[in-house]
Amino acid sequence: MKESTRAQGSTVVVGVDGSPQSILALKWAKTLAPTLGASIVAVTTWQIDPMYSTYAVFDQDPADTARSISAEALVTAFGENPPADLTALIVRGQPAKVLIELSLSAKLLVVGSRGRGGFTGLLMGSVSSACAAHATCPVLVLHADERTDSDNDLGAVLADGPDEPAGQV
Q1: What was the pLDDT predicted at 148?
Q2: How many CB atoms lie within 10 A of CB 37?
Q3: d(Cα 58, Cα 166) in Å, to the nearest integer?
Q4: How many CB atoms lie within 10 A of CB 13?
């Protein structure tokens, strides 16, 4: 019975890169997953740039770095009490491609608007843009700002809804 539930989408997939937006995405996933009857899958990807893969010597294993980023992000988002239904997934691959693939069996995909790389000042990064355009489930793209950076503000934002910023009339 559980397999058929999973095929219908029983997860909230969250893109995690350790950025403030991905921490916020984890917090929103924790809030939304119970209402969707879903578990949370926190996904951190890693890859080796093909330009460097043939001759570069790495001091650190990129998969270990991804595991560290994931673990630190989970502690930052949830402290010592992560959700019981949380799974941390470390995957080799391009972030947008991995997240879009996982969206096939998800109820919701949650990503930050900007990750660690790219150009500052852009409203959306390449990963969030690709996910919004190509995911097969609904996508929530979050922008971390002064209104939503803390745990206390998250409840206010949810209560106020998307139309009005928290604390404003």
Answers
A1: 44
A2: 10
A3: 45
A4: 32
**In the block, which residue shows the tokens 């700002």?**
145
**Low pLDDT (below 70) residues in the chain:** 1-8, 49-59, 114-125, 144-169
Name the amino acid, one letter, at 36. Answer: L
pLDDT at 94: 93
Q: pLDDT value at position 54? A: 54
Give dist(CA 33, CA 106) in Å, integer: 11
Half-sphere exposure at residue 93, Cβ-oriented, CA atoms within 13 angstroms: 14
SS (H, E, C) 46-86: ECCCHHHHCCCCCCCCHHHHHHHHHHHHHHHHHCCCCCCCE
CA distance 31 to 25: 10
What is the distance between the alpha carbons of residues 8 and 75, in angstroms, rounded to a whole number? 30
φ and ψ at 141, to 5 degrees? Answer: -105, 120
